[in-house]
Amino acid sequence: MHITPEVPPDQAPALEVTALSVRYGRAISALADVSLRVDAGEVVTLMGLNGAGKSTIVRAVTGLLPANGGSITAGAITSFGTVLTGRSPRFIVRHGVAQTMEGRRIFAGLTVQQNLDVGGATRRLADVRDRQAEVLELFPRLAERRGQLAGLLSGGEQQMLAFGRALMSSPRLLVLDEPTLGLAPKLVSAIGTAIASIRERGTSVLLIEQNAVMALSVADRGYLIEHGRIFREGSATELREDPELQQRLLGLTEDAA
Ligand SMILES: Nc1ncnc2c1ncn2[C@@H]1O[C@H](COP(=O)(O)OP(=O)(O)OP(=O)(O)O)[C@@H](O)[C@H]1O
Ligand SMILES: [Mg+2]
What's the longest Cα–Cα distance across the chain? Predict the structure, then answer.
């Protein structure tokens, strides 16, 4: 029997999180009833203060933490998408979801080139060559430093490497956990430009940020999270122009600065 998908694969959401709850041990409920969506081709930002639950969402989406309830699906092999809940990080990367972790987390003892090779490990060689050319075009500094140990890169360069390494797996969805943390304003805007450019190449982005000004300048839509619950969502324009949120968003930005 042939079943025609109701939604063409390229139009299905890149990520759909429904009623997700996550606990750390018995005592700590880190996420409660979190739902969010990243449509194909969208940049969506998730903003919130320290401890709000942002990285916990990233860990659940990429399979590093089990969900206690709810579901996570990504892309579309069927009209319902591929269920990621309960799958291994390796399965999730193979199904097109890549992430950069908070705090850079590059392999300090490997060279820039070797870090990129690790990022492309799940892909065929021909794909890896094409992807690497794109990454080096996006971040020319990495091309200059290819043979250097990654641990000796500056903070901003390490952030670019983390970003580049994630792109090496040709993700359909890239999850960036605070990519601008600790960066000078010029590098913050370079990261913004890189995000816009990878979206043009067809990758959807979930951008975790405390820098609300940067996040809302590059995102199509945004969610705000507090104490493990989403309390507001809207288009980037709505969120930017909401007088009530302005104070709060500016507060977030100042905290990050
Ligand atoms: N491994 C863990 N064990 C117990 N509690 C944890 C663990 N990791 C995070 N938490 C708690 O879960 C909550 C959410 O943490 P999370 O790291 O998701 O926050 P965040 O929004 O990413 O914050 P930040 O902006 O500081 O990175 C916090 O209260 C934190 O203390
Ligand atoms: Mg975090």
Answer: 58
Q: Whose CA is nearest to atom 3 of ligand 1?
A: 24
Q: Output 245 or 144, whichever has higher pLDDT.
A: 144
* Gap from CA of 72 to ligand 1 centroid (Å): 20
Tell whether the model's pLDDT for residue 52 goes beyond 90. Answer: yes
Tokens of 250: 């500016």
SS3 category, 11? helix
Burial tier of 201 (Cβ tally within 10 Å: 0-12, 13-18, 19+):
exposed
Per-residue tokens: 166: 């994630």
The residue contributing the CA closest to ligand 1 atom 26 is 50
Q: Domain limits of the chain?
A: 9-96+171-256, 103-169
31 alpha carbon to ligand 1 midpoint, in Å? 10
Whole-model pTM: value is 0.88
Span 9-96+171-256 CATH architecture: 3-Layer(aba) Sandwich (3.40)
